[in-house]
Amino acid sequence: MRVLIIEDDAEVCAYMAKGLREAGHVAETAGDGEQGLEMARDGGFDVLVVDRMMPLRDGLSVIETLRSEGDKTPVLILSALGEVDDRVDGLKAGGDDYLVKPYAFAELLARVEALARRRDPETVKTRLNVGDLEMDLLARTVQRGGEDIQLQPREFRLLEFLMRHSGQVVTRTMLLEKVWDYHFDPQTNVIDVHISRLRAKIDKPFGANMLHTVRGAGYRLSI
Amino acid sequence: MNNPARRLPAFARTTTFRLTLLSAALFALSSFVILSLVYGASVGAAMRRADIAIEAEIAAVEARFDSGGAQAANRYIVQRSVGGGEYLYLLLQASGRRVSGNISALPATPRDAQGRVRFVYDRAPVAGGSAEDEAGRAARGRIVDLGGEYQLFVGLDVEEEERFVGNILNAVLLASGLSLALGLASGAVVSRRFSRRLEAINSVAREVMGGRLQTRAPRTFSGDEIDELSSNFNDMLDRVERLMHRMRTAGDSIAHDLRLPLTRMRGRLESALVEAGDLAAREAALSQAVNDSDELLKTFNAVLSLSRLETGERRRAFEDLDPCAILADVAELYEPVCEEMGLDFVHEAEADLTLLGDRELLAQAVANLLDNAMKYTPTGGAVALRCRRCASGEVEISVTDTGPGIPADQRERVLERFVRLEKSRNQPGVGLGLSLVHAIAEVHGASLKLDDGPGSLDGAGTGLRVALVFPAGR
User: Fold this and answer.
1) Minimum CA–CA partner of B288 in chain A
2) CA angle, B313 as apex, B308 and B319 as ends, to 5°?
């Protein structure tokens, strides 16, 4: 996929671009808000990564302008401001996800890839399928290989998120944010315990593991 | 220095002085008006009495004239003025020739339409009186026509009355002047006192600005508004000082606590450089360095959110919350972890409670407390999360464990940043958890209480009960 990074710190910019290219994506960079807006208008990007505070034109203004012009390209906002209010401001301006600096590159990559997935035609899905794993969103049931699996409500939401992002890496922070709606950092790895419980239900009885741990990054659900 | 106010003495520039001055001026004006009314009334009454007496005397002379002609009138006048009576008389023929009377000529001062006249005359000195006293005495009188052939003047000495009302006038002016002067003086005294007390506070402010942050405004404990100002001022300085102290110690602690992991990370990176040949060792060193930097970032973020919390900005986003629901979510997140660690997890919450706060922060506080409880409670123990309404109406959220507990004399200390008790040094963490909970409690106006728990399994410890007590709802 094609990613546009709009960030005024050249070194951070180059580092992100290099990381994204190594992960197999095309990355272009812009050093300020005006240039970024120009490049974004030319189009063709799957995801925009926009720094919040930049010279000439700040990140929120870039996003607002693009949105007012009807551009729906998913945007990941990078910011040193991490309070709830700042996050809300960012999302209100039209951002799709918000990442607080400093962050690990794995976190950035996972979120960019998750955002690109959103570009897929937004059909209202009632069923999710990954391999022989099947989720019925209306009946709230899960089956693997035709066999019913009983899940707690939160386990269901956790699995739903993983299935919606199957094949991609999701980080612990992403899970905590999207499944539990917490934006703080619990000191113990609570997420790991929930993942291992989910594994015990969807993987263990079936022999073939689908829920993989990605070292240094998070988890991935795939065949 | 073009400001005219600059030239006034300091006390005269104060608000108090201006107010006192204004009230003194108003008081002087009103006393002047009242006394003037009194003055007018007494002058009027005295002069009216004199005029009535003059009219009666004229009528008496006219009666004699009507019955016995000029002869009878002349006789009456002579009788009345013999022995220095109080009236003044003059009977003149139309030609102007003097017939009788005790003054030589008509007063020269102008008369009004009724023939009334005010004038000054010299009285014939009486025995024992001073000539000075008799000269230039005030009098009033009236000139009337008598039968067409004569002119009659009757006057009355009003010197005493005039002197009396003159005294009243002086008294009026003196009283007004005095009240103005007294007002000025009291204004100066009051404003001096007032400005001295304000100046004391001002000088403290200047001292503080100059860097002596320990200076405090003097208190009188009288409970008046200046004392209240001093008290609030001092409280404000206390808070500023606390924040600065906290910032300084936090800075020191951060420097101290980050040095170790940074040094460790640097060492690993350096050895990775050296281990150029051994790829596996190099990779291990590098990935360890990445983990170290993650830990550093975590600490960093925790310090940042702690600082933001302490500025109290977050209060804007407060809303009515159901603590029961918040606790249920956190409990759901932590219960499996508890089980995994071989701990019993108890969760009891009363329904229908509300408190004003921030969902995320409260969840974070409870998560931190559970985290600590689980970390320090040995396998086989129990961790309990409870929420209830106290008899006094306060809402209490508590986390109890059966760990070793914290000795009573150390409980204050563990709330400080980066403080870790000796026996917990081997546990992961940087010692910010309880500081964060403490800061969250403060933002919510809640108190954080540390008590003994139900005791530990081995009997060596006391267990720990940490409670967040939120003030009773509105």
Assistant:
1) A216
2) 120
The answer to whether the Cβ–Cβ distance between A188 and B374 falls below 8 Å is: yes
| B295 lies within 8 A of chain A by CB | no
Between CA B462 and CA B423 the distance in angstroms is 15
CA B435, CA B48: separation in Å to the nearest integer?
Answer: 93
Query: Helix (H) and strand (E) counts for chain B?
Result: 8, 12
Contact present, A98 and A77 (Cβ < 8 Å): yes
Pairing of strands B464-470, B395-401: antiparallel
Instruction: Tell me if A185 and B371 make a contact (CB, 8 A cut-off).
Output: no
Please name the amino acid found at residue B184. Answer: L
Adjacent-strand bridge partners of A29: A5
Which residue is listed with tokens 């975590």?
A: B298
Whether B337 and A190 lie within 8 Å, measured CB to CB: yes
The yes/no answer to whether this complex scores an ipTM above 0.85 is: no
Nearest CA in chain A to B431: A187
Q: Which two tokens stand for residue B419?
A: 């403080």
Per-residue pLDDT of B159-198, as tens digits, reads 888 888 888 888 888 888 888 888 888 878 888 888 888 8
Summarize pLDDT for B400-458 with one digit per residue, the tens: 988 887 887 777 777 766 655 555 544 555 567 788 888 888 888 888 888 887 776 66
Distance CA B62, CA A72 (A): 122
Chain B residue with minimum CA distance to A102: B297
Query: How do residues B204-244 score in pLDDT, each as one tens digit?
Result: 999 888 888 888 888 888 888 888 899 999 999 998 888 88
Count CA atoms within 13 Å of residue A98 on its CB side. 24
